[in-house]
């Protein structure tokens, strides 16, 4: 049985590795820091936590911007992971492209929803 190892080779997703690894670590670190800050604010709050205190944590403009930056980081983190899953397991190219397009649409929708929640549009 002859195996043809010709010079024509299809490589999909080459050279993503190091950049994706850095993106995953950076976005995860940003999300951890944000979680610690929010937990500290909640744990150091006096009295029971109600809607007013919870809304007060996110009322300042800088906190809204920081929260949205973390949402963007979360969406980027999710995109890198899902893109890699679709590239590994979505064998027919048409299916892979459809799944990637649906993932992008979903993530953009989540970003829009987060924007509306933070700025009450």
Give a summary of the structure in a few sentences.
The chain is mostly helical and 121 residues long. Helices cover 74% and strands 0% of the residues.
What structural class do helix, strand and pairing data support? mainly alpha
Please indicate the percent range of residues in DSSP E strands (runs of 2 or more).
Answer: under 5%
**N-C termini distance:** 66 Å
Q: By CATH's scheme, which homologous superfamily applies?
A: Fumarate reductase/succinate dehydrogenase, transmembrane subunit
Averaged pLDDT: 89
Supply database-style keywords:
121 residues, mainly alpha, 3 helical TM bundles of succinate and fumarate reductases, 4 helices
Description:
This protein has a single domain (17-119), classed as Fumarate reductase/succinate dehydrogenase, transmembrane subunit (3 helical TM bundles of succinate and fumarate reductases). It has 4 helices and no strands. By secondary structure, the chain is mainly α. The protein is 74% helix and 0% strand.
How is the secondary structure organized here?
Elements (H helix, E strand, L loop, with lengths): L16 H27 L7 H7 L3 H29 L3 H27 L2
